[in-house]
Amino acid sequence: MSGELPEGVSLRQDALAAEFGISRIPVREALVQLEGEGLVKIVPHKGAVVSGLSIDEINELFMLRSLLEPVLLKKSAPRLTAEDYAELDAILAEYKVELHAQHTTRWGELNTRLHDVLLSRAGQPRTAAIVATLLQQTDRYTRMQLSLSADSIRQAQQEHEELVRLCRDGDVRGAAALLKRHIEHASKDLEQFIMSQRRASK
């Protein structure tokens, strides 16, 4: 989850079970869950290996998010409560601290939680479940995007703060438009990064 293992590394069930002092059954279950999140691939006769970064996957996942999340936000924002905004403010405050401390794993958790709270009052559980899965599958990409540069960090922080402000001010249309741009910007950043990495490796 923290991005420490490079693409293609084999994840042997017996070695992982021994490392964590558990049986192979929970290890197998965890690997299946990680496959569902796009973090590993289970290859016949080889087992689980760490997934690589895919531009096609980034484009698809973030495109789906950019379509679905603004729809949920338009329905959710007018229904957000004082308690919701208190939680959003707390998330933003911690987010700022963790960004400057370079705690990438916590970035992803806070980013997902912020989106969860913003969309939580939409009253569309099926769409919300799809978005929750997409957020889970894009978590590693989100953390990578934030770690690319100081500019990425500042922009993400500013966009999150502006999202909450627009919702609080009742500008639902503006908030939905910003959320769409926010997601599209992350996708573009990541695509450019992966392409530059591939060029550098040639």
TrEMBL record:
Key words, A-Z: DNA-binding, Transcription, Transcription regulation
Domain HTH gntR-type: 1-53
Taxonomy, superkingdom: Bacteria
InterPro entries registered for this protein in UniProt: GntR_C, TF_FadR/GntR_C, Tscrpt_reg_HTH_GntR, WH-like_DNA-bd_sf, WH_DNA-bd_sf
GO MF, one annotated term: DNA binding
Pfam families membership: FCD, GntR
Protein name: FCD domain-containing protein
Organism: Duganella radicis
